[in-house]
Amino acid sequence: MISAKEALERLRAGNRRFVTGASHGDAQANTARRRELATSQAPFAIILGCSDSRVPAEIVFDQGLGDLFVIRVAGNIVAPSQIGSVEFAAERFGTRLVVVLGHSNCGAILATLEELGRRSEEQSRHLRSIVDRVRPSVESLLVTGLRHDPAALVREAVRANIRMSVNQLRHSSALLEQLIQHDGLRVVGAEYSLETGEVEFLDADAI
């Protein structure tokens, strides 16, 4: 079993390769690897990331087939199905690192801020279900001085939403709480920069 600390270092190293253009690429998806994974898998990290087309976790972290258990949903929100998916991988595969991966200029964050500023009656109930899960993390920011600085407001809202999702995963599941307390599971947040390609881990010191 790979520890959370080792898994984090693998992700950091992979992101460095991605940023510098030294990615392994197709070398990690060869025929032998596909055959090896046909009957089993042992992903070393679980990534709960945004569905944004510009943030594919396997590419951002330069990992290959079978390395990451990836859950993607707009706004990297936490709902019962996401919690269940994390529980499944953590228990079934013994994966000990969970990363909530948000990113700069997230569309779900922008939609939520727009909704809070001017309620949109035309928004579908399905889209609103995402906005409603993001809303608690960003509402308090609107009563601060950030409301006068749109760019700073979005940056802080992205991070607030990441931290909320991390907190929900840490405390909304009895199974995950037990794995955290007794079996070395760690849940951390991270932010991907669309501009630089770099991933910043927000609370990696907790590992």
Task: Return the domain count.
Answer: 1
Largest sheet: 5 strands, mixed
- CATH fold naming: Beta-carbonic Anhydrase, Chain A
- What is the CATH class designation? Alpha Beta
Contiguous uncertain segments of 5+ residues: none
Structural notes for this entry:
With 207 residues, this protein is an alpha/beta fold. It has one domain: Beta-carbonic Anhydrase, Chain A (3-Layer(aba) Sandwich). Helix content is 47%, strand content 13%. Strands 2-1-3-4-5 form a five-stranded mixed sheet. A hairpin with a 6-residue loop joins β4 and β5. The relative contact order is 0.17. The mean pLDDT is 92.
Please provide a brief summary of the model:
The protein has a single domain, classed as Carbonic anhydrase (Beta-carbonic Anhydrase, Chain A), CATH 3.40.1050.10. It is built from eight helices and five strands, in the order ααβαβαβααααββ.
List keywords for this structure.
five-stranded mixed β-sheet, 13% strand, Beta-carbonic Anhydrase, Chain A
Describe the secondary-structure layout.
Layout: H1 4-20, H2 31-36, E1 45-49, H3 57-60, E2 68-72, H4 80-93, E3 97-103, H5 107-117, H6 125-138, H7 150-171, H8 174-182, E4 186-192, E5 199-201
Parallel strand pairs: 1-2, 1-3, 3-4
Antiparallel strand pairs: 4-5
Helix pairs in contact: 5-6, 6-7
